[in-house]
Write a structure and sequence with these properties.
heterotrimer, A alpha/beta (320), B mainly alpha (265), C alpha/beta (322), A: 320 residues, alpha/beta, eight-stranded mixed beta sheet, 10 helices, 12 strands, globular, C: 322 residues, four-stranded antiparallel beta sheet, 32% helix
């Protein structure tokens, strides 16, 4: 059976002053029914643009996307046209994604209005969705600015689930939430997934939650995936130095951990001036001459994982 | 609060002019020309002995009619054009923008003169001129607001859900730009009334003997040396209207601004 | 033993909101010894922003300091005149905020802003520029000379934060207050900034009050930590003690919830059920009672007081009051 979502070599290119930028530079991934895939990256990695492109909100300049086996067509602006009853998006800025002058009740009814799905009792439907995400009925008549961060996020999720989608793309579902309630959103996603077989694609920069929610993961840097595969494997045994750096960038009490931390040099290079050879070499503590000249092709690791590195972790020692 | 009261009073006075006015505004009494305020004539009389107070009250009806019609029409048309410009394709935006700027670059008086040459002076001419010159102003404001909203996450969310452009404009853009627009319009009322007064003052608007604040000012100006009262009487309502609607607009803004609404638990 | 740089005793701040007064801070006490880094950790609504505003006396107009004292180098800041307070700010007490985009003026170049910050000294233009360049180099900004001519929006988030830190430390303050300086940055940049603050603190010798909701950063950077909940201090002590042996149930739960600390993959992550109490209608007794899994009768009746030796906590539980 084919995966729910199959992405092959997706590219999002924007024209810019006498040239162009490849915000997404050829990525491929699969999301299966009932499973969660995570795309991990920092700011500037292109992960949000990727999410937008999959939802038809950003133009796709190359590549193919198949939803449930069928290739998605593109409109005149080269944006994908997925079946929006089956694909839903949760935004990073939860309260910003809710129409400010509409009540929660009305917001939750919006997907049905748009797709002209008949509802016997719109009110009851709104309450059902609210209770699905663990919110009380008193929130139905509130407005977005009257909701807390956690509440807004759950309303966003409720709206996304209104038409019982097959695939949910969640952009930074825990960003801005206190640690004590982050679990609420993630537990909710897990429960819904278990009950409905929902496929979930999580976009995040927080590696700590990936460990608990994702079956597969991909690390994104400058628009490309530098490592991807089974999340458990990658987290316990990263191959790409960037993955290792992200994993070790976890401030904490352990002095050992902070000493053996892989510290990256400098900042993310601009997309306009992609480094030659391996694009990560400017920040990589293990970089050597080969890295500045040749682009590392994909290496297949054990257990269906792939990475792009000339001198992956666990093989040769770090640069002397 | 003061704004609501003032505006309310003025509206009431204007609408009830036929009952409030002590005299017929057109009634001529040449023996009593240019008299100062008295018990009979609270604001004195003009050069034809007509009661100024009554003329001011009925003149208010003209002012009201002009401002209501002109502003509603230009707001409605400006809204539609502005949303199209702000939300639609670039090329359409450019065409509309050029047309707005072209219309705006004509001095209002010249515009008025041109229209008058075509269809003669009258209240409708004034209304037409005001509508034509106001549309670009409203449209530009709406366009800017729409553009700002276009990239907001909740609009993207609607597109992600598959909402049509029409639905987005109607249900999500319009409710968010309407309040500033209404405030702008209400604060525009004094300006429109002043424009009418100006055009009528120049003889491009209302025909005598119909009273309008502009024509009252015009007449009063000619006879200023004889009596200052007509000018004062013609000017006072303009001042009151300007102040009243300015306060009114600010009060509306305080009501509409959602950030000032208390965040409940 | 030299006197502490900052000592706050029983600080209470209330806000006028709608139909009542909201007690945003209640009897908050903390001590920052000379040359140390003290962290304040708490989630939204704990009052940490109010605390900072109260220390630098820039509270909102509807706020009132209802009690307590804030002693900075043995002077009570709350008793100073506005003039005296203003001369302290930016000179002996500096602040670095979360979003450098709002603390840096978008229309002035970096060089101009850094020169402005030096307005108290008598140095001429060239001297100021040299000092600015020196500070930029010190915070690890490459090509400092060129950066002085750029505008904030031309720099990345991480660089802007370094500039903000450079500006804050230029006057060599005795106290640097950092309000969530790394929250908006990616993890790899966050560790760089932590490293930077550690080095600078050693060089300049200042004390740092580091406010954050990120326990991990506090763990690595701070010597001591103060845990706040809904406007009160619930636990305080040496970082090592508090995080290895948390005594207050809130601290314990907070540590439990941190996904970084949960080594084994789990589909159901721990949370602290319930929500913040309504400060306008303060429940009697312990502020954490409603969400505490270990509360008992006394918790509703009597408000616990911070007690203990160097590791203090406000809790009625017997093992907490060690």
């Amino acid at each position: 059976m084919s995966a729910l979502l199959e992405v092959r070599d997706l590219r999002v290119r924007y024209p810019l002053r006498g040239g162009f930028v490849d915000v997404v530079h050829g990525v491929s991934l699969d999301v299966r029914r009932g499973e969660t895939a995570a795309i991990v990256g920092e700011s500037g990695s292109g992960k949000t643009t990727l999410a937008m492109a999959l939802c038809g909100l950003a133009p796709v300049s190359a590549g193919e996307v198949r939803f449930d086996g069928k290739a998605l067509a593109q409109d005149r602006s080269r944006r994908l046209m997925p079946d929006r009853k089956r694909l839903a998006l949760m935004f990073q800025d939860a309260s910003g994604s809710l129409s400010p002058r509409m009540s929660v009740r009305r917001i939750l009814a919006e997907p049905r209005h748009i797709h002209r799905v008949a509802t016997v009792d719109a009110d009851r439907e709104a309450l059902r969705l609210l209770s699905l995400v663990g919110l009380g009925e008193e929130l139905a008549d509130r407005y977005p600015h009257q909701l807390s961060g956690g509440q807004a996020r759950r309303v966003g999720l409720a709206r996304a689930l209104a038409l019982d989608p097959d695939l949910l793309i969640a952009d930074e579902p825990t960003a801005g939430l206190d640690v004590s309630i982050q679990g609420e959103v993630l537990n909710l996603l897990a429960r819904v997934q278990q009950e409905t077989g929902l496929g979930i694609l999580i976009i995040t920069h927080n590696l700590n939650i990936v460990r608990h929610v994702a079956d597969d993961m991909a690390i994104m840097y400058l628009g490309r995936f530098v490592e991807q595969g089974d999340s458990r494997q990658i987290l316990s045994d990263p191959r790409h130095p960037y993955t290792a750096a992200l994993l070790s960038a976890n401030p904490g009490l352990d002095p050992e951990a902070s000493r053996s931390r892989i510290e990256l040099i400098g900042e993310v290079p601009s997309l306009l001036h992609r480094p030659r050879g391996c694009e990560f070499h400017t920040r990589c503590p293990r970089a050597r001459e080969t890295c500045t000249e040749t682009f590392p092709e994909s290496t297949r690791g054990a257990g269906a994982r792939t990475f792009n590195c000339h001198f992956p972790m666990g093989c040769l020692p770090a640069k002397p | 609060m003061a704004g609501f009261v003032l505006v309310g009073l003025m509206l009431l006075a204007t609408v009830c002019a036929p009952w409030l006015a002590p005299h017929d505004p057109l009634e001529v009494d040449v023996t009593n020309r240019l008299s100062s305020p008295s018990a009979q004539h609270w604001l004195g009389t003009d050069q034809l002995g007509r009661d100024v107070l009554s003329r001011v009250l009925f003149g208010g009806q003209v002012a009201l009619k002009v401002s209501l019609i002109a502003i509603s029409a230009s707001m409605a048309i400006g809204l539609v054009l502005g949303m199209i410009a702000g939300f639609g394709p670039r090329w359409l935006d450019r065409i509309l923008l050029v047309s707005f700027d072209t219309v705006r670059s004509f001095p209002t008086i010249m515009f008025a003169l041109a229209i008058v040459a075509l269809i003669g002076p009258s209240l409708n001419t004034v209304i037409g001129v005001i509508i034509a010159t106001s549309i670009p102003v409203y449209a530009r404001v709406v366009r800017t607001q729409t553009q700002a909203l276009r990239e907001r996450d909740f609009i993207l969310a609607e597109r992600a859900m598959g909402a049509s452009t029409l639905r987005i404009l109607r249900d999500h853009v319009l409710p968010n730009i309407a309040p500033p627009l209404v405030i702008l319009a209400s604060m525009d009322v004094p300006a429109v009334i002043a424009m009418e007064a100006g055009l009528s003052f120049l003889g491009l608007g209302v025909n005598p003997p119909t009273p309008s604040w502009g024509s009252i000012l015009n007449d009063g100006y000619s006879y200023l040396r004889n009596s200052p009262w007509p000018i004062i009487a013609g000017g006072l309502p303009l001042i009151a209207v300007t102040l009243g609607f300015t306060f009114f607009g600010e009060a509306l803004r305080d009501i509409f601004d959602p950030r000032l609404r208390r965040k409940d638990a | 033993m030299s006197s502490p740089v900052l000592e706050i005793r029983d600080l209470t701040v209330t806000y006028q909101a709608g139909h009542g007064r909201v007690p945003a801070l209640r009897d908050v006490s903390l001590v920052i010894p000379e040359g140390s880094i003290v962290g304040v950790v708490g989630e939204s609504g704990c009052g940490k922003s109010t605390l900072i505003s109260a220390i630098i006396r820039l509270l909102a107009p509807n706020a009132r300091i209802a009690g307590g004292e804030v002693r900075f180098k043995d002077r009570d800041l709350l008793l100073l005149s506005l003039e005296e307070m203003r001369s302290l700010r930016g000179d002996d007490i500096s602040v670095v905020f979360q979003d450098p985009m709002t603390s840096l003026s978008p229309v002035l170049t970096i060089g101009r802003q850094m020169a402005d910050v030096q307005h108290r000294g008598a140095a001429g233009r060239r001297a100021r520029q040299a000092r600015s360049r020196q500070m930029l180099e010190r915070v690890g900004i490459p090509d400092a000379e060129a950066q002085l001519r750029r505008y904030p929006h031309q720099l990345s988030g991480g660089m802007r934060q370094r500039v903000a830190i450079a500006m804050a430390l230029m006057a060599e303050p005795s106290l640097l207050i950092a309000d969530e300086p790394t929250t908006a940055l990616d993890a790899t940049l966050e560790v760089q900034i932590i490293r930077l603050l550690q080095e600078l603190q050693r060089d300049v010798g200042c004390s740092i009050l580091f406010v954050s909701h990120h326990l991990g950063v506090i763990a690595e950077l701070c010597d001591a930590v103060v845990v706040m909940y809904a406007g009160e201090v619930v636990e305080s002590g040496a970082t090592h003690d508090v995080l290895r042996n948390p005594r207050h149930p809130y601290t314990q739960r907070l540590l439990d919830c941190d996904p970084a600390r949960i080594a084994e993959r789990t589909r159901v992550l721990p949370v602290i059920a319930g929500s913040l109490p309504d400060l306008e209608n303060l429940p009697g007794g312990c502020i954490f009672r409603e969400r505490c899994l270990q509360s008992f009768a006394r918790c509703a009746a009597e408000r616990p007081v911070l007690s203990g030796g160097s590791h203090r906590t406000a809790c009625h539980l017997p093992e907490a009051a060690a």
